[in-house]
């Protein structure tokens, strides 16, 4: 009798793949390597949070209403209590088996949002179907009944790994999550993907388990974790610079960040996203689990989404995930167990060559100079005083080549994912305009809304957040916005729409400059010459 594995509550990360003639990519995707969702067996309660949102909307219309403010305070306290109850209930359900017929929610791991069925918006590709959206809040729109695709299983049976299932909307009974046959059109960022929508026709999905955690796994390094590599002897981070779906600006190198007792921030780990790396299984990103010492793995740079590799003795990046030269091993400096706890010291071995990563003494020469030869130009400004060293490979392991494995805080990962999720829309907008496409009113409204969201995300409770602002540097969003502003618009059919977009673009950069970050100011000062070329200065005579 073959062994089958049941699906357990809130433990299993599932990769849902559409059972079509081809393996479909969802519009909700971050990459083309599958979608990761967490199952919630017991649906979160949401009515008090819904009440809070309604009262807040009324307060927005009448902000001076004292009684309404008091009502918002009371509603917020009740909503917070409801959220706490939801967290406790999900913990209580942890590990219980999922049964067919139960109502679940699907939360997207990358955005931390729930799949919602829209009752007002139709599908972009199939007008007879309704749209599906990602939203943060809980509601009846986010509830689905998990049912077997075939009659070999029935309600009450345990859901098992590799089962084929259908998901029925609780908001619209008789409607199911469905994958469109046509690809999304040219107007979509995901134009090579199929759309997920809601239809009376069923689409089957296969559930693939990422991994099943056990008690204590949170204290161990796992595949998929976002980490930093800090060279203890050099006091430097392993970094690279660039942006996914774009060129690599700076190859892999060491960025010195020496600890200085008189500068408190140097005592804490770096919050710069160029130091972020992700551990992936050699077999691919779908499977997870706990990483062991000396286990073969791949290392992905988060900003560029490229794999670290070694070519001709040089540590570099590649987009070829099938390249055997992308495989590394982490060796312990002090081995206490097979598991890797955070803040462990490791040495890094390149599997194909058998060579070891070594922090070199030579200065790394940046491909992208911070300034140019014209010292009169603002582009000559240096926005950082950091020093750089090369990263090399050597035949013999060196005792002092020990890297500290620092796990990135969950909040930093969350804001990075949020900001990175905004990049494709800007890239698509620039590409469309370069191809000569004109914006209509709807496209312009969507673009303006996205830029407004980008601005508001950098401000929390009226205060600019430096860790969010610096992501515009790390993800090279500043450069994307400059490219957007360089698009000719005078005399074009969409001049009116483009003018409004440019206003929002300048507002994004204004919010980026709020606060006291000298680096932010110097970084954008490189483009002052360009900004001045965009305005006609007239001298007023009195």
UniProtKB/TrEMBL annotation:
Molecular-function GO terms, alphabetical: inositol 1,4,5 trisphosphate binding; inositol 1,4,5-trisphosphate-gated calcium channel activity
Record remark on domains: The receptor contains a calcium channel in its C-terminal extremity. Its large N-terminal cytoplasmic region has the ligand-binding site in the N-terminus and modulatory sites in the middle portion immediately upstream of the channel region.
Highest taxon of the lineage: Eukaryota
GO biological process, one term: release of sequestered calcium ion into cytosol
Organism encoding this protein: Magallana gigas
Subunit structure of this chain's protein: Homotetramer.
Topology with respect to the bilayer: Multi-pass membrane protein
InterPro entries hit by this protein: Ins145_P3_rcpt, InsP3_rcpt, MIR_dom_sf, MIR_motif, RIH_dom, Ryanodine_IP3_receptor, RyR/IP3R_RIH_dom_sf
Protein name stated in the entry: Inositol 1,4,5-trisphosphate receptor
Nuclease found in the keyword field: no
Compartments where located: Endoplasmic reticulum membrane
Function: Receptor for inositol 1,4,5-trisphosphate, a second messenger that mediates the release of intracellular calcium.
